[in-house]
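Saturday, quiet lab. Running sequence design on the C-alpha cells for the scaffold JK sent over.
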C-alpha cells in the first residue's frame, strides 16, 4: 500500500470548475480513499503540487477552500492536517467522508427508523395550519418533479426537515443532519421504481399530521422508512453477488 507521500493523484481538468476547486476535490478524494483519520497530516504543499502536476499557488488556494469548509486545518509551523471534526456547512457530521456509502445509507436508515416515526408523531401533535399548508406544498412539488423526471431530492429533504421543525422540540433540529444527509444519499443510490411508494407514503404522513393523528403519522413514517430500507437491502445483496445496482434515470 502506498504511503501518504507516495499517493498518486489522477489530475482531471474540468473546464467548468476552477483549477483550485478541482484540486480541492482531489484532496477530498485522498481523504476518502486513504481513510485518513481526524488529525492526520497531509503531504506538504510542494509534494502535493508535484503529485498533482499543478503550481504550489493552486494547491495553496485549494487548501484554503478546504480549511473554509472545515475539511482541513493548518497548524502553524507543523503543516496541514485533516480537521478534528471533518465536515462542511451542509454536512457537519462529515458523512461524505465515510467509506462505503451504501453501508452508511443502511446505518442512517436504522437510526431514522428508531427516531423519525416518533418525530412524525410529535409533529402531528404540534403542527399548525401554516405547517400543514407548507407540508402539502412540498408534497405537490415533489410529485411534480418526479412526474417530470427531474431531481426531487432537495424538496424531499425539505419535507422531512419541515416535519422535524413541526415538533416545536428544540432538540430535534440538532438531529437534522442525520435526516438530511440520509435523504440525499438514499436518493442518489436508488432508481425510479420506488418513486410511487415515495409519493404515496409522503401523502399518508402529511394527511396524518394534518389530522393530528399521532399514531397514524408514526405508522406512515415507519412504512416510508421500511420501504427505503428494503430498497437499500436489495442493493446490498446485489453488491454482495457482484451484480450492478438498478440504474437511475434522473
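Result came back. Writing it out in full:
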Amino acid at each position: 500500500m502506498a504511503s501518504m507521500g507516495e499517493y498518486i493523484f489522477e489530475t482531471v481538468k474540468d473546464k467548468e470548475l476552477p483549477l483550485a476547486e478541482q484540486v480541492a476535490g482531489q484532496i477530498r478524494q485522498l481523504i476518502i480513499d486513504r481513510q485518513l483519520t481526524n488529525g492526520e497530516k497531509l503531504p506538504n504543499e510542494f509534494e502535493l503540487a508535484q503529485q498533482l502536476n499543478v503550481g504550489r499557488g493552486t494547491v495553496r488556494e485549494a487548501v484554503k477552500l478546504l480549511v473554509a469548509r472545515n475539511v482541513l486545518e493548518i497548524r502553524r509551523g507543523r503543516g496541514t492536517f485533516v480537521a478534528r471534526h471533518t465536515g462542511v456547512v451542509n454536512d457537519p457530521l462529515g458523512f461524505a467522508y465515510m467509506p462505503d456509502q451504501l453501508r452508511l445509507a443502511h446505518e442512517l436508515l436504522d437510526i431514522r427508523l428508531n427516531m423519525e416515526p416518533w418525530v412524525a408523531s410529535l409533529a402531528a401533535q404540534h403542527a399548525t395550519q401554516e405547517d400543514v399548508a407548507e407540508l402539502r406544498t412540498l408534497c405537490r412539488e415533489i410529485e411534480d418533479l418526479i412526474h417530470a423526471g427531474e431531481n426531487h431530492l432537495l424538496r424531499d429533504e425539505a419535507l422531512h426537515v419541515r416535519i422535524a421543525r413541526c415538533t416545536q422540540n428544540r432538540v430535534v433540529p440538532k438531529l437534522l443532519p442525520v435526516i438530511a444527509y440520509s435523504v440525499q444519499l438514499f436518493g442518489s443510490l436508488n432508481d425510479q421504481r420506488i418513486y410511487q411508494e415515495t409519493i404515496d407514503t409522503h401523502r399518508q404522513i402529511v394527511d396524518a399530521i394534518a389530522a393530528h393523528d399521532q399514531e397514524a403519522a408514526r405508522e406512515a413514517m415507519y412504512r416510508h422508512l421500511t420501504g427505503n430500507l428494503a430498497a437499500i437491502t436489495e442493493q446490498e445483496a446485489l453488491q454482495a453477488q457482484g451484480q450492478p445496482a438498478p440504474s437511475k434515470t434522473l
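Notes for JK: Residues 9 and 69 are 21 Å apart (CA to CA). The radius of gyration is 21 Å. Ask whether to fix the surface positions before the next round.
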